[in-house]
Each structure stands twice: as structure tokens, then as C-alpha cells.
Automatic annotation (TrEMBL):
Identification of the protein by name: Ig-like_bact domain-containing protein
Domain of life the protein comes from: Eukaryota
Cited SUPFAM superfamilies: Immunoglobulin
InterPro entries per the UniProt record, alphabetical: Ig-like_dom_sf, Ig-like_fold
Length: 89
């Protein structure tokens, strides 16, 4: 597997290898397999399932009551714990 933005194979030592997946999101959830081979062509393989848990969307800062003077700009603001798919006002 070549290095990409989503997966970076790494050799840690002569016997330890890793597949690093920075900023894992639900798109990288799935089955993974590694196959190693020696000079004589013998192979060994290992597989696993990677599940990325996405936190439930929630407000970290909700709307607050405001009073503004006529003719000024009113700004209503919220903050959430992860980027929402859609925002409706």
C-alpha cells in the first residue's frame, strides 16, 4: 500500500511495521490485511477490522438570549463538538 494522506506505512524496526492512519474518520472504517514474505517466498498474513467511533453531535455552546439596539447587528452563535453535515436556522 503506497503512502497516502489517509494511510502511511511505517517500518519501526526490522520486525515491527505499522500502518498509520492520521485523523481517522468513518471513511477509513473497514477490513485491513497485511501480508509479509521472506526471501524464500513464504508468506504470512494478519487481518483486522478497524472501526472509527464518531462522537454524537452535541452543542458545546448553545444559543444565548440577547438584547440589541435597533439598527445594530445581532449575531446568534453556537458551537458543536464536531463538524455537522448540515446547519439550519
Amino acid at each position: 500500500l503506497p503512502a497516502t494522506d489517509k494511510a502511511k506505512p511505517k517500518k519501526v524496526s526490522d520486525t515491527v511495521y505499522q500502518l498509520e492512519i492520521p485523523d481517522a474518520d468513518k471513511d477509513v472504517t473497514g477490513d485491513y490485511k497485511v501480508v509479509v514474505s521472506d526471501e524464500e517466498g513464504q508468506e504470512a498474513q494478519s487481518s483486522c477490522k478497524l472501526t472509527v467511533k464518531v462522537p454524537a453531535l452535541e452543542f458545546t455552546k448553545g444559543l444565548e438570549d440577547q438584547t440589541v439596539d435597533a439598527g445594530t447587528t445581532a449575531i446568534l452563535s453556537v458551537e458543536v463538538n464536531s463538524p455537522p453535515k448540515e446547519v439550519k436556522w
